[in-house]
């Protein structure tokens, strides 16, 4: 216990110290939320690795590997990073060219007025809040295993630490610590994977003693289930604002592209390790154990305390910076797309910086409340990805490629799809919810746009080719 306590005090002390340093350097809203569009290659690469290695990777994906095997990697992790690479390769340069803050900014720039409010609400409340809650659950699990704290105490302490770090340091502190912690995360996952596999006799014995259903890239339910599961997860990563923020924060288009590719290739490779750990754990862990406890149990059982402490610090590093990325994402949406649009369009930098910090507190406290109601990390995360993906992917693609898309088409698609997603579980229909949602969203975006006209507030240009701020509203 004392080893763990010493590690945690040193780690969190360093984190708060860095945040305090940036508190005195941050002077504007742009500094706090987007690092003034000036971040270099290695910092962007590191923050992509750290942000992608939160509770889902360390806890959720080890648990998923434990329960379904290596098919979990194919239908969740692999597809997530394939879509992330598509986002970076196809859209990093044109998005960085727009010089925006949030995903919702793109909707406002293209359609004008309050078009960004609904995407902002989705990003802030249906993604940022539950995913931040997952990080708090992960932190409380670590504190429970290492220090014996109950869940409530662990989550309250985690919330306090996250608030202190993110209020003080904003995105600049998050990006810097992410870059350093990415090394710790990589080492931690590699060490734990090697130790776990060796514990069960090595790769050859692991494969020999594991049934094919847990080694197959296709789930036991068949190819259709694997593809439908992937559909509920993958497309969201085209509209994941955490990746967008890294694109916007890059110092130029070239950095956004190169760092984005490098970071996501790294996480695509290392994300196989949690699933390998989970499959290996089936050889010596009680198969009735809650899947979200498998990671902590394996680490605590197989490693001596000084080494296990490093692994747990790596996990806390991922959880801490993941949480700060998500609360900053939600705060950016509320500040930029709601406060500035609805309440105070003439807000100066001082007001925006203050509201940013206040909304960080709001999102974090909402995340704490949500954490008490989540029972399964993978299920909660998958649901958040599916909802945001269904509502935003086709409107985003239309903005980028199709000048004919109209504000009415996009808003109708999002509102109707949102209603259908929430009532669908009660309809008793035999079709997959994500598949129905994506088909409906596509049909509404295209159909309604074809029968409606552009609003005067729109800029009917394809954002893949044009910088929208260079044109006047209604310039046909």
From TrEMBL:
Q: Which PROSITE patterns match?
A: NA_SOLUT_SYMP_3
Q: Mind telling me which InterPro entries this protein's record contains?
A: Na/Glc_symporter_sf, Na/solute_symporter, Sodium:Solute_Symporter
Keywords, A to Z?
Answer: Membrane, Transmembrane, Transmembrane helix, Transport
Keyword field contains Transport: yes
List the Pfam families hit by this protein, alphabetically. Answer: SSF
What Gene Ontology cellular component terms go with this record? plasma membrane
- Principal subcellular localisation of the protein: membrane
Membrane-topology annotation of the record: Multi-pass membrane protein
- Annotated membrane-spanning segments are 6-24, 44-64, 76-95, 116-143, 155-176, 183-202, 222-240, 261-285, 305-331, 352-374, 380-402, 409-427, 433-451
Q: Does the keyword Iron apply?
A: no
> Where is the protein found, in the record's own terms?
Membrane
Family that this chain belongs to = Belongs to the sodium:solute symporter (SSF) (TC 2.A.21) family.
Task: Name it.
Answer: SSS family solute:Na+ symporter
